[in-house]
């Protein structure tokens, strides 16, 4: 225990060295002014290039457009599971043998709806 305290004290002394100072010796330049944008223009991937990860594509679209993340709801059904996803005031559903497949199918359907609406 004594050794650990000495090691910690020695490391504190090293961090107090001027080379590790948190304040720079010269003042920083003022930040560059940026013009605020009203609404970011976000494009969905084209339908000719289908995504191998539609869930991630939908989530990235929502993040880039500064929208809330998509909401997924699952229910058991005859085919396995049904999933309903909603984002940007629109919703779509998909089914699959398991929740993962149902979620991906719902994301594909919502991406198609969002593309159609643009």
UniProtKB/TrEMBL annotation:
Keywords: RNA-binding. Coiled coil: none annotated. InterPro entries: dsRBD_dom, RLC_Component. Gene3D superfamilies: 3.30.160.20. The keyword RNA-binding applies. Residues 13-56 are annotated as: Disordered. One of its GO terms (molecular function) is double-stranded RNA binding. Residues 53-116 form the DRBM domain. The keyword RNA-binding applies. GO terms for biological process: regulation of regulatory ncRNA processing; siRNA processing. PROSITE patterns: DS_RBD. GO terms for cellular component: cytoplasm; RISC complex; RISC-loading complex. Residues 39-56 have a biased composition (Polar residues). PANTHER family: LOQUACIOUS, ISOFORM B. This is DRBM domain-containing protein. It comes from uncultured Leptolyngbya sp. The lineage of its organism: Bacteria, Bacillati, Cyanobacteriota, Cyanophyceae, Leptolyngbyales.
């Amino acid at each position: 225990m004594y050794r650990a305290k000495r090691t910690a004290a020695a490391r504190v002394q090293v961090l107090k060295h001027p080379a590790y100072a948190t304040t720079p010796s010269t003042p920083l330049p003022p930040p560059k002014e940026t013009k605020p944008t009203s609404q970011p223009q976000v494009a969905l991937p084209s339908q000719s290039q289908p995504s191998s990860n539609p869930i991630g594509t939908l989530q990235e679209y929502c993040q880039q457009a500064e929208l809330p993340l998509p909401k997924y709801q699952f229910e058991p059904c005859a085919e396995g599971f049904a999933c309903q996803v909603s984002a940007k005031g629109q919703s779509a559903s998909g089914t699959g043998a398991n929740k993962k497949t149902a979620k991906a199918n719902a994301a594909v359907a919502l991406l198609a709806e969002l593309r159609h609406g643009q």
